[in-house]
Amino acid sequence: MAEHNDLGAWGETMAREYLITKGYTIIEHDTRKGGAEIDIIALKDNRIIFVEVKTRRDGSFDPIEAITPKKIKSICRAADNFVRTYNYRQEVQFDIIGIICSSTDNYKIEHIPDAFYPPLG
Fold first, then answer.
1. Which residues are CB-contacts of 48 (< 8 A; sequence separation ≥ 6)?
2. Among 14, 17, 37, 73, which is most buried by a count of CB atoms within 10 Å?
C-alpha cells in the first residue's frame, strides 16, 4: 500500500477514535454507496452523520481545502443512497475531520460538525 494510503487509513482510525470519545456511535466506515466512498457513518443525538476525513503531513496544505464542491456532491449522493437503502429516518448531518500530523504521536484534529449541506439540484 502506498504511503499516502497508509496515512489516510491511519487518519481515519484516529478520526473514529476521536468521534467515539465525543459520544458518537460508529455504524460503518469505508463504505461504498452510489459510486462513492463514505469514510465514516455515525449516529449521535438522533442524527445520522456522514464524516469525510482528510489527513495531511505537517507542512502541506490544509486538509479541509481538499473538500471540493465535486467531493461534496459525491458524498451527498453516497449518503442519499445509504439512507434510502437502509431506510434511515434520522436527520442527516455532514461533518469534516481534518488531521495534520508530523508523526503518529504528534497530530492535530480539527472537527467541523455540520460542515456543509447537500447542494440543491
1. 41, 42, 83, 88, 90, 91, 92, 93
2. 14
Q: For 75-88, what is each residue's pLDDT tens digit?
A: 999 999 999 999 99
Q: For the segment 38-60, what is each residue's pLDDT rounded down to a tens digit?
A: 999 999 999 999 999 999 888 76
Distance CA 29, CA 80 (A): 16
Per-residue DSSP letter, 120: P
> Could you tell me which of 63, 64, 66, 80 has the C-alpha nearest to residue 118?
80
**CA-CA distance, 55 to 39, in Å (whole number)?**
12
Compute the 3-state secondary structure of the chain and give helix, strand, coil in percent, each to the nearest 5. Answer: 35, 40, 25
pLDDT tops 80 at residue 36: yes
